[in-house]
Amino acid sequence: MDSGKESLIDILDLELFRRICGKAPAAPKPTFSVLCLGLANSGKSTILTLLSGENADGIRPTVGFSIKALMFADCFVDVKELGGSDNVRMYWNKYFCGAQAVIFVIDSAGSKESMETANAELHKALADPELDGLPLLVLGNHQDKEGARSKEQITKELELGLQSTARKWIIHTCSMKNKEEIMAAFQDFNKLLLEMKEKEEREDKTEEQDGEFSKI
Predict the structure, then answer these.
(1) 167 and 133 in contact (C-beta within 8 Å)?
(2) Does the annotation flag 142 for ligand binding?
(3) According to the annotation, is 42 in a ligand binding site?
(4) Which DSSP symbol is given to 106?
């Protein structure tokens, strides 16, 4: 079949689809590459396993890194989770390239020392040029434990107010026993990612238009 006939068939197929469904085919969902960081035992692996719909029983701490593909109503999120043990954190920056956003999980009921370590590791990671300005979700996990910190306490102890205005960040508290809380956090995070993408597309379009005008 020649290319002209193939093009005509494609057009007819699309027109038939529109008549049957009453609308054009939906645009593909955007996909985001996200980095998930946090100290050991903060609950990163369990949270991602719950979101992926898998059985979270018997989850073991991540050694090195693992990748989870999460599907939401409005987008796909490919999460690269890095292990949080002392001997792994020193290599975190080797995996930063290509990330479009960052998730940082903490044990909100952890000791003062663990919060200080989390603070240091978070700010060290965010200072890396590869993560400069990327959106951030902080998850205060283990809210079901005694002594769990509030969002306000976590914000203060992690010094989140020191983030530059160029970085959008949100904080949620959650428990691995309550999937709805985790979903709510990711819904807000996904909204932030989609807004970021729309802004970038508008800026790219403006640059293209400016480039066209400069040629006139």
Answers:
(1) yes
(2) yes
(3) yes
(4) E
For 100-120, the pLDDT digits (tens) are 999 999 999 999 999 999 999
9 assigned to some structural domain:
no
Supply the DSSP symbol for 164: -
Asked if residue 39 belongs to a known ligand binding site, the reply is yes
- In a domain? residue 10: no
Q: Residue 38's domain is classified under what CATH number?
A: 3.40.50.300
Q: Which two tokens stand for residue 108?
A: 């909100």
| Domain range enclosing 36 | 31-202
Q: Is 38 annotated as a binding residue?
A: yes
- Asked if residue 128 belongs to a known ligand binding site, the reply is no
Q: Give the pLDDT confidence of 137-180 residue by residue, as tens digits.
A: 999 999 999 999 999 999 999 999 988 788 999 999 999 999 99
Stated as kind and residue range, the H or E segment containing 38 is: strand 31-38
Domain count, the chain: 1
Is residue 109 a contact partner of residue 140, using CB atoms and an 8 Å limit?
A: no
Is 47 contained in some domain?
A: yes
Whether 98 has a binding-site annotation, put simply, is no
Q: Note whether residue 13 is domain-resident.
A: no
Ligand-binding site membership of 143 (annotated): yes
The residue among 193, 141, 188, 132 whose CA lies nearest residue 163 is 132
